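Give me structure tokens for this 872-residue protein.
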Amino acid sequence: MTTATPRTLAEELRTRSDRGLAGLLRARPDLLNPVPGDLTQLATRAGTRASVVRAVERLDTFALQTAEALAIAPDPCPYPTLAALMAGDAGNAAVAAALPRAVAALRAQALVWGPDDRLRLVRTARELLTPSPARPSPTGLGPTVAEATTGMSPGRIQEILAAAGLPATHDPVSAVAALTGLFCDRARMAALLDTAPAEAVAVLDKLLWGPPYGAVTDRPAAHLQWLLDRGLLLPAGARNVVLPREAALHLRAGRAHRAPEPVPPALDPATARDPQLVDNAAASQAFTALATVEELLKEWDLGGPPVLRAGGLSVRDLKRTAVALDTTEPLAAFWLELAHAAGLIASDGEADERYAATPAAEDWLQLPDHQRWAALVAAWLPATRTPGVVGTADAKGRALAALGPHLDRSPAPEVRHRVLTLLATLPPGTSVPERALLSRLRWERPLRAAAPATQPPAASSPPQGPAQAAPPSTAADGAAGPAPTDDLRSRLAQWTLIEAELLGVTGRGALAAHGRTLLRTTGDTGPSAETDTDADASPIAGALTPLTPAEATATAVRAAALLAPLLPEPLDHVLLQADLTAVAPGPLRRPLAEALAVLADIESKGGATVYRFTPASVRRALDAGRSAAELQEFLTTHSRTPVPQPLAYLIDDVARRHGQLRVGAASAYVRCDDDALLSEILADRRAAALRLRRLAPTVLAAQSAPEQLLDGLRAMGYAPAAESAAGDVLVARADSYRTPPRTAPTPVPDGPPPPDRTLLEAAVRAIRAGDLAATAARKPATATADTAPPTPGALPRTTSAETLATMQAAVLTSSPVWIGYVNADGAASQRVIAPVRVEGGYVTAYDHTSDEVRTYPLHRITGVSELADDAV
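Here you go.
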């Protein structure tokens, strides 16, 4: 049974409600792998180094500062002592208001336990956050007097007491306690410093906010010797000294941090725009995104570039793709990775491996625009592949390639979700500068990079004294200044803002209405419950989890429904002009766009697309099997303006010459009913490379392939047509090349996946049941001739006869018993069961541990013990 005041973390966990335990498991999902057998195992796992490091890294700035203050506070630490460390002697209203939330967040994550009068930081967290020479604390504090004087001779300690005006003691322990008491006494410490030389006070000021270490020579100056004599500087090595923690706290007026940050940075200055304008701008960009991906698929319709031996796309092919998409190489890498994440492009896996569109791309192209957008966004939200790192070097100095390996960055989905969540907190149509978002993100998840090892600052004399102390290692204690943007999380946030604008999730920097729908709603279940409001389950800092692929798909579908009315309606007509161009005043319906792309070349894009008709483009349409009459009818049907006479002449002229020459395979031959035309070709110097010779008045033979012969004659201005062995004209409609069925790349999670509600409820029940089995009171067992005395914590041991008799008695009395059980894999466990029947060498019972009815072989039960009357 637990006591009123928990003595261990496990005992405190037993006092939590099921919702409180679920909040802990949700915030720290690594504790669930595998599910702990009881609360003692849960507490032990929560104190392991790997788990604590992960939990500490997910704290916000003020919760982290609170944990750092607890690490330098007495253990256990009363709440008033912690408040004094955070707010200082003068107090701070903002700190006082925010501190309960920070303590509750630490307690909810099992980093702090105990009542307010005995707050305890878990041992592993204390070891991580306590200052040491090898691992400085962001507080800038050094060791305590007791730690710094370890190994110092008793005589030297007594000399320090005498110089400080304290009476001598009989042992080093009391001497250290007396010196500590002096440094902690504000009045006596102030009186001592009033007698200090000005140079000595300047030395203390330089070491005040850290690093607290300095170097001295063998013959220190008088002002340094004054500090050494009174213990204000204590030895920290052969020629190094340190400012003890208690003295530094007095000089800081009791503050553990130079600049506590109880309140997150404000998202300002804010720029307000008309929400409708923002939505329209986002919708326009969403349509552009669809057109860009569609153009990429069309560019690779017959097969894309080859795959590098190490994987990915070559720099040259990336440049070609960027030119084809009329964009920059970084943005081309984004569109490639987006299409790859959506399963639209992949490698074909052949011997001469190359990239191509997948069969899924055909299905995607047939979807309505808003559904195609939903598919892209659903792939983008949980993606861990990060196109922003393309071109940078990996750990071995090799450049990272688009579509290649090593592009996964696990924090990407979480950062992406946080950026969109911050934008959603702003009023509709409102945007803020990128810098404000980055500052808020850094406050919510401060980076805790290890400080580089440096030599202690010099404190030698003369002439300079100690060097200026370096600034604290975290932004929390540093002076206000530019927020660093060279860390991974800041770059991920910057890329998220760019990508969200490209996809039409945001418009003019503000989150669009359909973009807000991409976040979880209050009706979502599972890990979306990001805060607990139970009395013992306060909001957990850092509990915001990214969307799973299933959640991303569901939210993208909801967002697409809002986006659909904003997308432009496809048109079924163009405007033909006399200069052999056609203007599409908006997006065209797919059949019209595909047919027009064959008949004409795209000259410019934008709000209106301009197509230009050329002899080559008309010949391309004729090669695809269209006749001149069909082309004329197609233009007449789909143009709101009459077909210009120059365009009609162009089509008729190309059609009249098209197919007059026929090219087939001999190696290759050319035949024509007009022998004069063949003579003209033979006399043309440009035909020398084709190596033609006359076989008959109407037939020429060539020593080149038919494809080369066709291209050569077309380059000379002719319009040849290919024919089959039977003499029929071949329709030059190229078939699309597709890869075999491919699955989209799977995101690489940042640690264990967040548990859903079903798993949390099952895990809490299992832990509660296992804890009941482990802690239930048993009736005292007595040793017999065949059994040894029971060992505390060991499995029960009884003979087969005793086990059978006890089980049969439990069936008759309907009472629960405690058993030891070894499964088929040899794993031993202890369980609390309520036997229902015993027959055939098996016992059927309700297992309180697994909360189900199970059957156990009697020969696998190591022993049985009756429970105390009030155990269950």
